[in-house]
């Protein structure tokens, strides 16, 4: 009995329309569902990226336990090293400011930028963790 | 050029020792690294679950952009349906209160509970999203 797959990763955003536009149009994620002012869900491979409005989800619902946070969360997406330069150009073409770039000791590279809500996003290439990123 | 893998999922916890004990001893995740009062990192399959103390990571560091949030985040782990009952018993044996259980319309099942910091954790079986959970 071992947990070996994260199925849902969450970030909190209060402007769902801005998030929807950014994650779909700039990052190219596949929309799964959008519900009023509560959430917008994207599929990312065999997992889900869930963007919630914490003002709504912190209120107790009828089924799902409440959750929500204020601040700047963080998510990293895996990117093939060969595509890193293309992503760098893609972000700049969409006027996304690259906040930092890091070359890790084990050969990985990371690019950091922000979503419209200020969440810290990262594109990280193989080698970043040395955990079989290429698997 | 498509993002199809989330490499890093984060939660924020201020008591890293309590989180370390819970995620390693109760959830059985594999420790990757622990740094003082800043973070504890676990590997989960081909991704990383990063637990950060927001008091530290919200301060600007020298390389990595600051991030951090206060509140109750959410992460879901995929669990085989056949193991759901074992997990239910396992949580109860470790005195983890099950906050909610949901049977989804498409056949998936979810169990919700909290980590010591109050983050909402979920074990979700195949069928929960209908996105090839069994892939």
Write structural notes for this entry.
Two copies of one chain form a homodimer. The first copy, chain A, is an alpha/beta fold and about 140 residues long. Chain A has two domains: about 1-70, 2,3-Dihydroxybiphenyl 1,2-Dioxygenase, domain 1, CATH 3.10.180.10; about 70-135, 2,3-Dihydroxybiphenyl 1,2-Dioxygenase, domain 1, CATH 3.10.180. The first copy, chain A, is built from three helices and nine strands, in the order E-H-E-E-E-H-E-E-H-E-E-E. Chain A has helices at about 15-25, 55, 85-95, and strands at about 5-10, 30-35, 40-45, 45-50, 70, 75-80, 100-105, 110-115, 120-125. A four-stranded mixed β-sheet of chain A has the order 1-4-3-2. In chain A, a hairpin with a 3-residue loop joins strand 2 and strand 3 (about 40-45). The model of chain A has no long low-confidence stretch (mean pLDDT about 95). At the A-B interface, strand 1, strand 4, strand 5, strand 6 and helix 3 of A face strand 1, strand 4, strand 5, strand 6 and helix 3 of B.
What's the gist of this structure?
Chain A is α/β, with parallel strands linked by helices and 135 residues long. The first copy, chain A, has helices spanning 16-26, 54-57, 84-93; strands spanning 6-12, 30-35, 39-44, 47-52, 68-72, 74-79, 100-103, 109-114, 120-125.
């Amino acid at each position: 009995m071992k947990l070996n797959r994260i199925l849902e990763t969450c970030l909190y955003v209060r402007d769902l329309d801005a998030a929807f536009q950014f994650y779909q149009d700039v990052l190219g994620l596949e929309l799964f569902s959008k519900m009023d002012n509560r959430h917008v869900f994207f599929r990312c491979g065999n997992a889900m990226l869930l963007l919630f409005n914490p003002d709504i989800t912190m209120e107790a619902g009828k089924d799902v336990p409440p959750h929500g946070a204020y601040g700047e969360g963080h998510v990293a997406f895996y990117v093939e090293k060969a595509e890193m330069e293309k992503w760098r150009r893609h972000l700049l073409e969409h006027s996304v400011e690259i906040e930092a770039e890091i070359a890790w000791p084990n050969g990985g590279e990371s690019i950091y930028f922000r979503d419209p809500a200020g969440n810290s996003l990262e594109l990280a290439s193989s080698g970043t963790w040395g955990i079989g990123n290429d698997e």
